[in-house]
Fold this sequence. Notes:
Order of helices and strands: EEEEEEEEEEEEEEEEEE
Oligomer: single chain
CATH superfamily: Peptidase G1
Strand order of the largest sheet: 1-9-8-7-6-13-4-16-3-2
Distance between the termini: 22 Å
Number of helices: 0
CATH class: Mainly Beta
Helix content: under 10%
Largest sheet: 10 strands, mixed
CATH topology: Jelly Rolls
Number of domains: 1
Strand content: over 45%
Number of strands: 18
Amino acid sequence: MLRRFIVLSAALALSAGTAFAASAAPMAHAASTPSAINPGGIAHLIGPTAQVAGGIHEEESSNWSGYAVTGGTYSSVSASWVQPAGTCSRGDQYSAFWVGIDGFSSSTVEQTGSEVDCVGRTAEYYAWWEMYPGGSNNYSNVVKAGDHFTASVVWDGGDNFTLNIADTTQGWSQSNKQTLGSTPARSSAEVITEAPCCTNSGGILPLTDFGTVNYTGSTANGTAIGSGSGLEQIYIADSEGRTEDTTSSLTSGENFSNTWVRDN
């Protein structure tokens, strides 16, 4: 399924750069049908911050879970994960897995990742990139449950970024140079599981039952994400405060998991 997107009226206009493939795999095709879903975007935080062990801040969000580091200026972020299988039983549901710079406390996000969507009882898998607030774009490469992904976002100077993603199981990779069109804050770097946005009314979409996704080698500025200051441990909750997934503690400062609890 082509990912469709909605650009919020408050969003800044972007000037998209030209993407190019790092392998002979087919190039991306842009998703262009408006008013349905957007896999990326800024964090929507709920309620006060809690302090947990080791000075980590725990954050409740309606759309992000995972880890963000916010105590510096960020030039790179990277992580690896295994694409989880979606358990699809009813309705349409969505789960995205990605790395990115910005978005925790700024208005842009430069990001790339994978996804599993449920279309009724059918699970659909794909990889994508986004320079939010611009819309997301799908890669046409094959993605299956159990595929091993490695992804990174690298700031190239000015408002230029390189978005890298590789599916080592399927044997393809993409390296995608993009221009944001505005000055990036570079105030956070994150490794995130997301309940994408949006319905026509702007609401967060139901979270696909992805079981558990394990992230390894999570780094920011070339060092373990847990070694930085301003570390935020995030989990998803619905509008009634019910937990939708959980985020484990970090091991070795760079490995963690998200586990699905409910769709919303």
